[in-house]
Amino acid sequence: MTTDSPDTRGSWGSKLAFIFAASGSAIGLGSIWRFPIMVGLNGGAVFVFAYILAVILIGFPLMLTELTIGRHTQKNPVGAFKTLKPGTPWKLVGYMGVITGVCILSYYSVIASWGVGYLYKTLIGAFQGEMTWTRSDQIFSSFTANPVQVLICFLVVIALTTFVISRGVKGGIERWSKILMPMLFILIIIMAIRALTLKGAGPGISFYLKPDFTKINPRLLFYAVGQAFFSLSLGMGTMITYGSYISKEENLSSSAGWVCFSTTLVALLSGIIIFPTLFATPGINPQEVQASTGLMFQVFPLIISKLPGGYVFGVLFFILLFVAALTSTISLLEVPTAFLIDEHKWRREKAATVIGAAAFILGIPSALSNGASPWLTKINLMMKMDLVFGNIMLAVGGLLITIFVAYVWGIPQALKEISHGTPRFKIKPLWIFSVKVLSPLAIIAILVFTIFFA
């Protein structure tokens, strides 16, 4: 596990390399694009509170569980379950994860493609001059309704992602993560500081950070747990795959902790960018702004046009958005690529290209469902894809993984693997309780509510 050619499985060069790569997978658009939308749709600060609890009590234990399975087997999700319980249906959990990852990649890359298009628009000065909410909304609607523009940008995202994955673990994922992640953190901190210093930002900060606990309900809790799964790349085997590249000497607990911390930090900072800016920007009534898939792309042209230094601010933001998207699409493509390499002995370049092409074809309906196709737009296909694969399937995957480790493979076996590199596992009781009791019950309750009552 020390080599890294396109034909063999690689390994991370260091713990920091893994943290960068896994954080890149976890952060992405899940934290920067999707998190503010979920906050806006679910009561503001109370959702932030519920999300942080979900990360601590469910997200972290499950991430550690997936990393443990991956490092123990050094396999992709399908190969991992085959290794641990050969000849049983448990391998289907791995297949479900691979399929879920490809489906998420298909529509997730469409959102990333909007970032590419808006970066270009910002660079050419499309948002200079007088800008109103109506005009910004019209620009976004016009862009997403143009099939040629959207599909070209979509193809750019898939092509870049495929290129990085075809280079392997060290030559592709690790090398690019070391470049992209520090850039992402620097940009988002700069923009969060700028947002907090805006005149009139106070009400936005209150909406975002002062919770109204009377707004807590099962639907909000479902979306909070779903957001934790989505933003941490859980339930679809990504962390099993990334864990398979970790050496036995590394501390899995601290690695999982750093990934959860960095992901949550970026999510919180993204909200600090969006909501104070939204409330502070002249000419906008935040109560009239709907938290839709295009929220970020509708708000920021206003910022660019009205704020001093808005042009530079806008260029930096859409660079950030693209960087974040690319780090996540890379991880989404790596899972099915590793599956084809491990289980079917494909060359890495071939596997990455075939899966990338499949994701592009699968994503075309999502790309056309925001105005380019009236029928696809009417049924809101992209949001339905996100509900099914970005919430339900991830939760089901996480549930099955916890049940497998707690009651099939066994807690003692998992703890034995965790002990390699983690001689003092101080939070062992919390991890055991979450995997055996809390996580399964919470996920089941939320899924039942969502399927039958939401």
Pick out its properties.
454 residues; mainly alpha; Sodium/glucose cotransporter
Brief summary of the model shown:
This protein is mainly alpha-helical. It has helices at about 15-40, 45-75, 75-85, 90-125, 135-145, 145-165, 170-195, 200-210, 220-230, 240-245, 250-280, 295-305, 310-345, 350-365, 375-380, 380-420, 430-450. The chain is built from 17 helices and no strands.
Structural summary, described in words:
The protein has one domain: Sodium/glucose cotransporter (Up-down Bundle). Helices cover 77% and strands 0% of the residues. The protein contains 17 helices and no strands. It has helices at residues 15-41, 45-73, 77-84, 91-123, 133-144, 147-166, 169-196, 202-209, 218-231, 238-243, 252-280, 295-306, 310-344, 348-367, 374-378, 381-419, 428-452. The relative contact order is 0.20. Mean pLDDT is 84; it is low at 1-9.
